[in-house]
Amino acid sequence: MTPITRSLLRRAAPAVACLVLATSALVAAEPSSAVDFGSIPGPAGDGEQVEIHVPRNLISIATKIVAKQEPEVAKLLASVDSVHVRVVSLDEGNRAAVEKRMGEIRADLAKGGWQKVVTAKDNGDDVAIFMRTKGDELIEGVVVTVLDGDAEAVFVNVVGSIRPEQIAEIAGALHVDVPHLAAVTAAVEK
Predict the structure, then answer these.
(1) How confident is the model at residue 188 (pLDDT cuts 50, 70, 90)?
(2) How far apart are CA 16 and CA 135, in angstroms?
(3) Separation CA 12–CA 27 (nearest Å)
(4) φ, ψ for residue 130 (rounded to 5)?
(5) How many CB atoms lie within 10 A of CB 111?
(6) Higher pLDDT pick, 70 / 108
(7) Are 145 and 127 contacting, i.e. CB atoms less than 8 angstroms apart?
(8) Whole-model pTM above 0.90?
(9) CA atoms of 33 and 80, how far apart (whole Å)
């Protein structure tokens, strides 16, 4: 290493270190809308347990595939960064643990700055929908938690830069049936 290179490195190192620290602080300061549902116990018997994770690169491929035939769907999908869905059948062996985990997730979302926009309890169903927004124009994340009576639990997380009016359209495009979605869209658009 030449003396000039050594001198430049000595002078540049503190500036580079400050830049790295500042950048990591900015990244850490911006909360992520991706939610880790953690460990959710499956049913003991023949019940179902489904997990779907669609990251940005797969959504991008899907966007390109549908762009010619369904340009509106492609436009909607372009605003989504990831979709994560977990569905777990409930039985006597996992019901209490799944209900407890759902309660923990809901509490963590509320503490983490997510807004609860829908709560619905009816005939054993228990639905809560949370959103994280950026300003007044964009939704950065949506989390839907559903206890479908004694049958199953559903956890959904959609991350992106989504306009409120796109929520129902995106769910339809992805063939995701979200209970009470019309109420969410109406609540956000108000």
Answers:
(1) low
(2) 32
(3) 22
(4) -120, 150
(5) 8
(6) 108
(7) yes
(8) no
(9) 12
